[in-house]
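Researcher: Please translate sequence to structure tokens.
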Amino acid sequence: MKLSDYVAFNPRVSLEKGVRANFVSMDAIRPGLRYVYPDQERIVNGSGSRFVPGDILFARITPCLENGKIAQYSGDSNGFGSTEFFVLHAIESSTDPAYLYYFSQKSDLRAAAAKSMTGASGRQRANIDALKEYPCVFPSLREQRSIAAVLTAYDELIDNTLKRIRILEKIAHSIFRDWFVLYRFPGHETQRFTKSPLGRVPTKWSVKKATEAIFVNPKTVVRKRKSIPFVSMSCLSDDSMIIRDGETRSAASGPKFQKGDTLFARITPCLENGKTGFVQFLVGDEPACGSTEFIVLRSKTLCPEYVYLLARTDEFRGNAIKSMTGATGRQRVRESCFDNFLIAHPDTDTLKNFHDCVSPIFHQIYLLFLRNQNLQRTRDLILPCLISGQLGLSQMENPTKS
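Model: Translation complete:
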């Protein structure tokens, strides 16, 4: 038997040309996460891959394939996406869609696809026949569903935790906006306001340049010949403070930072896409280093949470984007732009109250992230054993009961 006996590849999907439909970009898929949701809507124009809910999107281009960009589409209607996806549709009579997703995670299946790649360096693409001809034997539908149910329990916990993280982050942003944009902080009813270059601001506050309140690329001391954590641009999220697993490198690499710092992308399109992270994974004054395309922002007279939330605002990012110079496609932020950005600096009491309000939210987000890391590690350990039959279903425990 071969994979094409269980899977319909790039099936025909009905989408009316000229209407808006769910679209999934390659960037929407994150390695290790099963579900991918539409990240935008676009006009159907006849190009791109097409799929129905439950289909598997399998990256065919380097380095996305090698990085494991494979996910199950979880939109609420038919969608289309990048031309760089192979679409795998489970044949109803023989294949469970969830089991197919887990089967697609097999390292030797990805290796077979990668081995078939042809094309110019850096833009090589896999041949779909390498997947179609992949030799395999699927268990019965009943056993497929039982295996998938065990692994799905982990992925649903992971997905629900990610949703909680997004909600908490939205709450933190909402608090920041209420307090420092709309000036609806606790006790604002009794505050006096005065005119300023930023409009009316509380009288106790002061208008300052960002660089008067924030260190930009501050010096962080690292002992010579010391290997320290390294964070690449891919470790940052477009829409969350979370910094995913990095690696260890020589301290000579990239800008240095420490716990409580904000990592702000300085290069296009990473900045426009919103790549910004908040450092929580370090202990004490332990240093780390990162991509040369980061700008490190550190509180001088504010608090770390304020700096991160400010860096996430459209106004702060827009000011940085306007300062960009360089060749098309490789433009970078000029650090001098932060001298041109004004903030209404809160008084000490308001700032302390804000820190006390949002720091538990930041900590909870980090704890949820650590929980997800543990869930993913456990799932990744048992997945190949279940798919290969090395581990029996009777040996498994439901993670929701642990």
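Researcher: Any highlights?
Model: The mean pLDDT is 92.
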